[in-house]
Design goal:
The complex is a heterodimer of chains A (294) and B (387).
Chain A lengths: L27 H13 L3 E5 L5 H12 L3 E5 L6 H5 E3 L1 H10 L11 E3 L1 H7 L5 E5 L8 H4 L1 H6 L1 E4 L4 E4 L5 E6 L7 H5 L2 E5 L4 H11 L5 H16 L9 H14 L3 H9 L14 H7 L10
Parallel strand pairs in A: 1-8, 1-9, 2-5, 5-8
Antiparallel strand pairs in A: 3-4, 6-7
Chain B lengths: L1 H10 L6 H13 L6 H12 L6 H13 L11 H11 L2 H30 L14 H5 L21 H4 L13 H15 L4 E4 L1 H10 L8 E3 L6 E7 L5 H13 L6 E7 L6 E2 L11 E2 H7 L5 E5 L6 H5 L13 H11 L3 E5 L10 H9 L4 E3 L2 H10 L1
Parallel strand pairs in B: 3-4, 3-7, 7-8, 8-9
Antiparallel strand pairs in B: 1-2, 5-6
Helix pairs in contact in B: 1-4, 2-3, 5-6, 9-16
Classes of the chains: A alpha/beta (294), B alpha/beta (387).
Chain lengths: 294, 387
């Protein structure tokens, strides 16, 4: 990657710089993508292997821009409407039975969703729509208008809600479902590649500054070796590496022990933090795994 | 420059519209791009490309727009061929020396030099990729000038530009039938599964209706939201089918969330008395087809995937299978499957126009009473409608 340090995210007021904060290492292409999305007020769609820091990115961008982060975690049952608002008919029914005064104003029963919250944030917010591919196929299409014009209509009160400041919208996807073209056209796109060893070394050092050079080299070597093992169900990713190194430090494992395991084609110490499937432990341990055909 | 890039992208099959072009211009005007070509490269990629599978094509189009010359024709020289070619051109001692110096890269380099030298001796020298038909590349009809050894002559000495590294090459993947098209087609299956009697109390709707009714109870019933679709995939795992099988498996597993259950088994060419679950362990772990028929009742949607191309004997005769001695003809097993599963289709990756030319395709089609569909979006829609 280009060795020139990243330049700060550009955002209205001169915010604190973001050259990969203390804990987040951003590559130049990522910085360009975020800057462009912020400047043009377009959503940024972020894809990448699990564990490459898609969700963390939103937190770091929010912190660097000095704006509040609003997280909307999408599930398989999430509907686009949930992000806008919901009409709480149950509460209104109860209030009507109790003879509460509130019942006469329908606005008391409109519950705001995450998108509305982001639209109302006083200085503009960072809205994270996490794992958009988890939801129903039509979910992204249902949000087109809202993300494009940054406004939506509330039928119950006949009001239009407009964003006071265009929020920075970050959308992550794990590629479980393909997203519709109309949706993609409105987004900027960034693909988070799995970090190369040098970037990874910087990431690890950002999290464990007191890590010895020798152990770091041995751990990275073992880690990238494990990722190359054919037939893994879940290849270890950045977050697993960080956990593992944390464990290695806590247990005081010597660099030699990590390296010896690699030479002997057996598992490195505490490999359970890296490989989560029983099958993978078998595959990586050099044990003959049935059915591994050249 | 911009138009050239956009046109090059469109030629390469990357869907770029006016909207994306304007977005790129907007971003440039907003001044978010750091100076230099690399910054522009990152910005253009972010604005114009929406799928990492297109990154490689973008890299090539970018090089083309920038340099005016199509970059790096996508011809890879397989390592096996290199070794083979080297075996022809180097003495054993020379090869040993090269291997000591370091693997394929050194070999490529040495071979390139050797060939360059040879070009000089045989004037023109463009026939080094055997005109006598010994070379697989010559046979495939590539012009020798288009073949670049290794990663091109530029790799020695000069650092590659980021778009020349072509790091996204492995992500490019021209899937004919996108998974989205597939999911949309399969949704019809799911919707079907949601039908049924209106027997559940729809609480939210009841409350809403009651509130609108001024407090008088207004009961609303709803159909049970039940996703009971069960899909049984039976995949032909013959040699010619491997690429298709992987594609179909991926398509179906992408749509897994649309079903209650999805199971897949393999067979070879035609359905016989045994199927297996893991193609790599087919000789160790198999399941009697009788048991498969027993365990999956008529509610299962059964999808066969196969090219149905084989010798007719493999379908019609006992002992006809190419792999083993089958006691009963494949046709008998197919008949049982058809009798057991009313919701059954066969998807055929071979283009429909080629079906009549294969006798076995016609045979199987007749056995399935015509329920064979091509593996295209249109064919899939028909198949799903049939299911």
């Amino acid at each position: 990657m280009d060795p020139t340090p990243g330049q700060p995210w550009r955002a209205g007021p001169p915010g604190p710089g973001f050259e990969g904060t203390a804990t987040y290492i951003a590559t130049p292409d990522l910085i360009v993508a975020v800057n462009a999305a912020v400047a043009l007020g377009r959503p940024l769609l972020v894809k990448g292997e699990p564990g490459t820091g898609k969700t963390v990115l939103a937190r770091e961008v929010a912190a660097a821009l000095g704006r509040p982060l609003i997280e909307w975690h999408v599930k398989s049952t999430t509907k686009a409407q949930h992000g806008l608002y919901e009409y709480d008919a149950v509460a209104r029914l109860r209030d009507s039975q109790l003879g509460s005064e509130r019942v006469h104003d329908i606005r008391n029963y409109i519950v705001r969703g995450k998108v509305w919250e982001a639209f109302e944030a006083p200085a503009g917010a960072v809205l994270l729509i996490d794992e958009v591919d988890k939801a129903d196929l039509e979910f992204p299409n249902d949000l087109l208008q809202e993300l494009d014009r940054m406004e939506f209509y509330v039928h119950e009160t006949r009001e239009t809600v407009r964003a006071r400041h265009r929020p920075v919208v970050l959308i992550t996807s794990n590629d479980e479902k393909e997203l519709p073209d109309a949706f993609l056209r409105r987004c900027f796109f960034h693909y988070l590649r799995f970090p190369d060893p040098e970037t990874m070394a910087r990431i690890v050092r950002a999290h464990h500054p007191d890590l010895g050079r020798d152990l770091l080299a041995a751990a990275l070597d073992a880690f990238y070796g494990l990722r190359e093992v054919p037939g893994l169900k879940k290849r270890p990713s950045t977050s697993e590496l960080l956990d593992w190194i944390h464990l290695l430090l806590a247990e005081g494992v010597a660099p030699g022990a990590v390296r010896a395991a690699r030479g002997g084609r057996s598992l490195p110490p505490l490999a359970g933090a890296l490989l989560k499937h029983e099958h993978d432990l078998g595959a990586a341990g050099g044990a003959p795994v049935a059915g591994r055909v050249g | 420059m911009f138009e050239r890039l956009v046109h090059a992208l469109r030629r390469a099959g990357v869907p770029v519209s006016l909207g994306e072009h304007l977005a790129l211009l907007g971003a440039l005007r907003a001044g978010v791009v750091p100076p230099g070509t690399q910054g522009f490269y990152h910005l253009a990629r972010t604005a114009l490309v929406k799928d990492e599978r297109h990154f490689d094509r973008f890299d090539r189009a970018f090089a083309e727009a920038l340099g005016g010359r199509p970059a790096d024709a996508p011809i890879e020289i397989p390592e096996a061929w290199l070794r083979w070619e080297a075996a022809r051109r180097f003495t054993p001692e020379e090869r040993a020396a090269i291997d000591v110096r370091g693997g394929v890269d050194a070999l490529t380099e040495a071979l390139r030099q050797r060939l360059a030298g040879q070009d000089g001796r045989h004037e023109g020298g463009s026939h080094w990729v055997g005109t006598r038909g010994t070379s697989p590349l010559g046979a495939a009809g590539y012009a020798p000038a288009g073949i670049r050894l290794g990663r091109g002559p530029g790799r020695a000495g000069r650092a590659l530009k980021v778009w020349e590294r072509r790091e996204y090459r492995n992500l490019d993947d021209r899937v004919g039938l996108g998974t989205r098209a597939f999911q949309v087609a399969l949704r019809r299956l799911r919707r079907w599964a949601r039908e049924g009697a209106a027997e559940d109390l729809d609480l939210a709707e009841t409350l809403r209706a009651t509130a609108r009714n001024g407090g008088w109870l207004d009961l609303r019933m709803a159909r049970r939201r039940r996703n009971a679709t069960r899909v049984l995939l039976l995949l032909d795992a013959g040699g010619s089918m491997d690429a298709h099988v992987r594609r179909v498996e991926r398509l179906f597993s992408a749509a897994r969330s649309e079903f209650e259950r999805l199971e897949s088994y393999y067979f070879h060419n035609c359905l016989y008395e045994r199927v297996w679950r893991d193609n790599r362990r087919r000789h160790v772990e198999t399941l009697p087809t009788v048991q498969l028929l027993k365990a999956h009742d008529a509610r299962w949607r059964v999808v066969f995937v196969g090219d149905a191309q084989m010798h007719p004997i493999e379908v019609t005769h006992a002992g006809g299978s190419v792999e083993h001695d089958n006691a009963e003809p494949g046709a008998e097993w197919l008949r049982r499957a058809v009798a057991r599963w009313p919701h059954l289709v066969w998807l055929n990756p071979v283009p429909e126009a080629a079906w009549p030319s294969t006798a076995s395709t016609g045979l199987i089609r007749a056995l399935l009473r015509g329920r064979m569909y091509p593996l295209t979006p249109a064919g899939l829609r028909e198949a799903v409608a049939r299911l």
